[in-house]
Design brief:
Layout lengths: L8 H8 L11 E8 L6 E9 H7 L8 E5 L5 H4 L6 E3 L1 E4 L9 E8 L4 E8 L2 H7 L8 E5 L4 E5 L3 E6 L6 E5 L7 H4 L14 E2 L9 E8 L2 E4 L5 E8 L4 E13 L2 E12 L4 E7 L8 E6 L6 E3 L8 E6 L19 E7 L6 E4 L3 E6 L5 E10 L6 E4 L9 E4 L9 H16 L3 E4 L22 H24 L14 E5 L6 E4 L8 H13 L2 H12 L12 H6 L2 H8 L2 H17 L16 E3 L2 H15 L2 H18 L9 E4 L7 E6 L2 E6 L9 E5 L11 H18 L2 H17 L22 H17 L3 H22 L26 E2 H16 L10
Antiparallel strand pairs: 1-7, 1-28, 2-6, 3-4, 3-7, 5-6, 8-9, 9-10, 10-11, 11-12, 13-14, 13-19, 15-16, 16-17, 17-18, 18-25, 19-24, 20-21, 21-22, 22-25, 23-24, 26-27, 29-30, 29-36, 31-32, 32-35, 33-34
Length: 857
Amino acid sequence: MRKQAVWTCAAIAALLATQILWAEPHLKSIKVAVTNPTNENRPAENIVLSIPELKKIAPDFYAGSQIVTASDASTVSEDATVLHPTELPSQVDDLDGDFKPDELAFQIDLKPHQTRIVTITWGPVDRIFRLREDYESQTNAIFSKKIDGVGWESKRDAFRLYFDKRNAIDLYGKPRPSLQLDRYATPGYIYHNNSPDGRDIYLVGDALGVGAPAGLVNGTAEHIADVDDRSWRIVSTGPVRAIIELSYKGWKIAGKSVDIQDRITQWAGERGFLQTIQSNNAGDLVFATGLTQQQNIPELRSSATDDPAWLAMWGEQVVEGGNKAVSPILRGTNLGLAIIMAPGAEAAANKDSKNYLLTFPLKNGVASWYSLAAWDQEGANDPIAVTAAREPRDYVARAADIDDVTSQDQLLAYVNMVAGRLKTPATVKILSTVEEVQSAPPDSLHPIGSRTYKQAIDLLQKEIDRTAAHWEPVISAAPPPSVGRSAGDGFFTDGNNQTGEWKSQPGFFWTGAFLTAELWKMYSRTHDEKYRRWARLWTSSLVGKESEQNHDTGFLYFYSSVPGFQLTGDTKLRDSALRGADHLVEMFNPVTQLIPAWNANGDDSIIDTMMNLQLLWWASHETGNSKYRDVALKHALRAADWFIRNDGSVIQSVHYNPGDNRQEFQLSGSGKNEAFVFPNHAKLGERVFYHTHQGYSWETSWSRGTAWALYGFAAAYRETKDPKLLQTAQKIANYIINELPEDGVPWYDFCDEGVMYRNRDTSAAAITAGGLLQLAVLTQDAQKAQAYRSQAERITHSLIDRYLTPTYQGDATPPGVLRHGSGTHPADGMLIYGQYYLLETLMQLDSAQTEDPPGAQ
């Protein structure tokens, strides 16, 4: 009988020192509900959130280092089940110039009456900007004497305001969607000339142009001309909106001296801009805005009862291109213009000799209106790249788009759409009362209770029995010679979280030995002959194909032929395992000191191979031949140098010069197999570049790959006692511990924390727990050893209580399903290797449960 553990005060103190078992999350969030209250589609609805209001909820909200994502869920609970929300470009603006953020702006697509949950996530810049896209500018604003004042634009069209006594608004049309104001401001460039991109298409004359503000005096619109001072400020530009602020001091109008502030806002993708004027001393001055009257172009107006009121024009009012600002009207093309007042503006229809007008008073010192332009040539020269396009001749030009405005009816429909948005904007409700972290899967949040290791093993045994019995006829019907890595039935990797059913795959892939490994484990535990029979059945499909595999030869034969030989003494299985080890030795490249991932003389290795070294450690012990150990040690030492960052995070894939100075590399893994030309001057055996097949990005740390590294380096130290390998394993372990969420089950990628992909990966958790258990035994420092073991136990208990079915009252999923593994995001389900490594870890914990803890006296 094993003796019960005797805990000394020192051991208890060491355990207590490890009870803060998870790190503070790096990324936090606020949930917001955005609702379309109408029965109309609302693409790219404009949303603005007050940053001071967000800071009331989260005082540490880091404006400028944020990501905005949205799901199609309408409630927070539904949102928690969404695996891959959509990233929305966002922008932080300082409106008053005090260098403090005031507003967070973004756009979101809304279906009729749809509510979408938006998550605003923030955190350190070294996290956020590994995840966040580089948002392309969709708006711009400039001030330039070259264009006679200020200009603002989206990619649809551009406007400028003559910032002098004319104080009128002009228009640039764009056949090609792009930002063009900077070009127009280039010295020597003539923006009246015809261009495939766009040009000045409008004749303002001495009228207001497109929606400039004015005062109404004796029935005439008086421009903001006679002022003591006029100034401008570009508040912001970026991926979401551009804002310009204009100030007029001492405007002499109707016997008054009026101060005006005019804010112009241009949102991405829109044909128009919102203009808001404000004055504290305008008194009873009546204001006006309007459109320049053009010959034979009639005015179009809202009815007297419509709110908001609007004014529009449609017809041939585009000037020809040329070196002169004044040119004849271009026939055969139409331009639509419109002004829509803010709801409740009490605007009246009017006109003078030059303008069609809307006149209105200020209400509480403020008035707003939206001005727009729609040219029927808009987007007509939009270049679209086709697949693998390398030069302009490989592009096509868009001839029509679904939202083109090419008729008066379409213009009026667009005006009504804008009016509807102004009158009934989307509603925004902040749902969070405190800052939050992204939730774990909802079905893991209310566990039934705490299980023992034996109870969890019993649940896994039920799943193993169910799987083997179901799939035995399939594998029995597939003659072993017909089965290969990508051919033959009877193997699987992924399963369904709810039904517990496995998805059939062609061939044994790299995962084909994990069910076999479970069966051998159960045979060693129970000595039940059915497990031996099942294990031999599946193993027989692998034997004889060792030389056909890649680096995953280790996974395939260390978990099938090796335990089969150890438990049965069958020398055919010993020979199979040794053939697999010999194949890995043959693949080893002495120039790089690495086993390539996919074939001999390959140009990349991946961190996963650290697990495949187990076959080499075994072969070295079994044969006494040091060649296996030597290859494995060299690979491990080089991997420690090339794959592990200083903070303990892990790179998945490293490409190198394998000895032939190649300039073209193969990007393989995760279904890819494509050539990649990468000119380089790397020396023989040196790195060229690194990336990831499965992590979020090349600069993040994929959690399963990190777990492979922890487990693999711990095993490598156990076999070699090389101190560098222990240090490497401990560095990885410390990184993992500092990154684990509250329940100990990592996100798919440690750097993501559920922002872009909300996948937990229980397979990574199970592998991590196994690696930490090994490290606890290997670490001499008693306190560190206990910390590693405590973490391994915490992770394992979370897996068996929260993720191993049944996990909640009424759970209808068959018992023993380890939910929420993620092979490649955003896939979410049971994974055969997750099942195996949990079983392996549980059996180790169960067998050692009554033994002394590491370091106990």
